[in-house]
Structure of Homeodomain protein HB1:
Amino acid sequence: MEEGRFQNGGGLGVKVMTDEQMEMLRKQISVYATICEQLVEMHKVVSAQQDFAGMGLGNPYCDPLLSSAVHKIGSRQRWTPKPAQLQILEQIFEQCNATPGRQKIKDITRELAQHGQISETNVYNWFQNRRARSKRKQSAVVPNNGESEMETDIESLKEKKTRAEDSQPDENTTPMADHMYFNSPDIGFDQLMGKIESPGPGSCIPYWQMEQYDLFG
Amino acid sequence: MEEGRFQNGGGLGVKVMTDEQMEMLRKQISVYATICEQLVEMHKVVSAQQDFAGMGLGNPYCDPLLSSAVHKIGSRQRWTPKPAQLQILEQIFEQCNATPGRQKIKDITRELAQHGQISETNVYNWFQNRRARSKRKQSAVVPNNGESEMETDIESLKEKKTRAEDSQPDENTTPMADHMYFNSPDIGFDQLMGKIESPGPGSCIPYWQMEQYDLFG
DNA sequence: GTGCTATGAATGAATG
DNA sequence: CATTCATTCATAGCAC
């Protein structure tokens, strides 16, 4: 990717990494965490069914320390505007009901920075969301009166399905891989499972494969 | 951690961490890996027993956690890249940091189609977005100082550490624990992952193994 | 502690 | 390409 270069003065006491690398790491850990969770859940279920077995195994997966530690690493906190910042933002939003330009964003960011940590992206997102939600709310309030109105609000966007040929909502729409975000990293999990799951006879479809069959049926 | 994604209002896009922090991280991951291993083993045993015991259990696994990730079955209209597809896309993007030509798009599409429904437009859009966002992030990280800060010394990086993060709520809570930045090769992620992953050889490499970063430089 | 709501963030797609 | 839109995900905060 981009600048992946850093030169930690060779074994100094510090390492450096880019945002992307950081993000990558976070995801990796997140995946790991989730996989563990899923494994644990799965094991619980399976174990429950075997009243006779596995009791001598102890509980290797109940490590509070571990989970707390990982949570810290694997979770991201999101920016929360401070009252002062919010007030300013709202004020600006009132004036120009549109997303400010890049420069404007910079300015706003700089100003808000005086009240607490904030980034341009935060500001950008804020306006994007603010606008989108403001709009949505508005159109939601007028659903029954002008339901036949084609150009007003919601419907106009709903009918945007112009390129039907492009996005087939069918098979590819694997719900499990929903979003590249790994709070539920299904990826890798099935593969992982593939390793431990070797019952042989395809008598039952393991839940981690279910989705492929039960998508629309 | 989140801060990482963007231009931290003027900060540079890198994070730093001490060896100590690194070590801690590594340990945490190590523990996780071990736990995963144990869980896998355990599951193997349990599963095997189940086989003998008469496995017509149907779908014993109904992990609520998992299903939550699988929700919204029939309600997606836009294409969502699957992990496998994403992995490939990222890989390609890494190579040619530019939008592929028409023919290239076709090829890519064909390849990705093996992993799920997809159209050329999807691919095209993906590259457009990927590039635009990558760019934006980059420029945001290096706003006025066209020169890469990384070129400088570790020393300077250390200094910047104070302001290295951007969207933390702020000064308060866990000032440091939240910033466990990783960069070291000391812990081979791929190897670690390989332990629990081990998919078929030719199969796809899970996204978390994408070694797109030259961490070990 | 369970669930709900508001909202920050991520991202596919559309528009200029 | 650069911006913007629409939609969705995930979580902080709060009610119960």
Remarks:
- The radius of gyration of chain B is 22 Å.
- Residues 72, 76-78, 99, 128, 131-132, 135-136 of chain B lie near DNA strand D (CB under 10 Å from a C1').
- Chain B has one domain: 2-53+79-209.
- Chain B has a mean pLDDT of 58.
